[in-house]
């Protein structure tokens, strides 16, 4: 059978059955797993839990064909007679969406929650703050959005080009907006993890409240690493304790992101203080692998390994749980080929085939490490993705390859690309996803003359 992700086992009855709905019962089995049986008697789903039932329903939708992914129109009425036994390889199957560099309206975030659910991905990591914008409403500190949510201009293309977009950019989510996103995701068994990035990538906060920073300045209009970081005064620590208290009130989940990356010259005390505050609040801190250099971290801290896999291996050996997201393999803003038609080509070439070939389990692990490999996430940074259309182009169909890697056994399917083209791209068409064609970008997806920085 041609599914994304692949089933663990499948028996095709060689005939079609009339689809009349389904019945679900809960049984023992791996978390998120299910058994789906389709016959003349109807569809029976045996699921380990509610997430398993959701995964089974997504498989059922795939069996019904691309038309089942349209919002309206003639509904499919037949389904193959089959038995499928399926469960995920990894518990953490995530996507990081950067809404700080370029703001995505709430409706687009909700659409991405739906797209994650369609692909049996179950974590949405929202990068809510950066040098270029603050997107989270903090009622105690309203200037964070009054000032920090807007910038006067944006670099257009790579920073070395000198080009600017010539227009302001901004937006933010109210706390009610984010509660709506969290609940919408919860109903689809997607966990939303918020991130407030400290002590670097904080220029938008410093623009709103200059006393937080070392050097002042406005909301940044450029890309790259900004050397202006937060200071370590106790008043700054207190400020961010309040910010994270409001964040944890809006996001009820266990895991809270605190960033910690690319902070030149910072000693790490602010990161450690906020990590301890998160733990005292009954939650788990989640940060980029630079936090390993901040000094002793609280028990329960989760590390996202983005500078290769070495940081993740080190973290597991130190007893921390890890999410793999190495830039060389799963940064979906990186260019998809070395063709000059690729719009704003940045980073290393990361093809669809490259993403599918990747294994999240790094070499060198013995299985004796005290920390666990929870899974992995693909990261979508949006410096050069200024609209939902551009995000679609960067993410798909590579995100479908990532989804299959995260769900399926480690063995690779040599027919993956053919299976994708025949069965899954029509589903993306039905969903209205403006993905990159396998043959290269459409003319309207190109940005000729806008320089990037390919490596």
From TrEMBL:
Residues 30-87 form the Beta-hexosaminidase bacterial type N-terminal domain. It catalyses: Hydrolysis of terminal non-reducing N-acetyl-D-hexosamine residues in N-acetyl-beta-D-hexosaminides. It comes from the Bacteria. Its EC number is 3.2.1.52. It is an enzyme of class 3 (hydrolase). Keywords: Glycosidase, Hydrolase. GO terms for cellular component: membrane. Residues 90-265, 272-409 form the Glycoside hydrolase family 20 catalytic domain. Pfam families: Glyco_hydro_20, Glyco_hydro_20b. GO terms for molecular function: beta-N-acetylhexosaminidase activity. The active site is at residue 262. Gene3D superfamilies: Chitobiase/beta-hexosaminidase domain 2-like (3.30.379.10), Glycosidases (3.20.20.80). GO terms for biological process: carbohydrate metabolic process; glycosaminoglycan metabolic process. Belongs to the glycosyl hydrolase 20 family. This is beta-N-acetylhexosaminidase. It comes from Lentzea atacamensis.
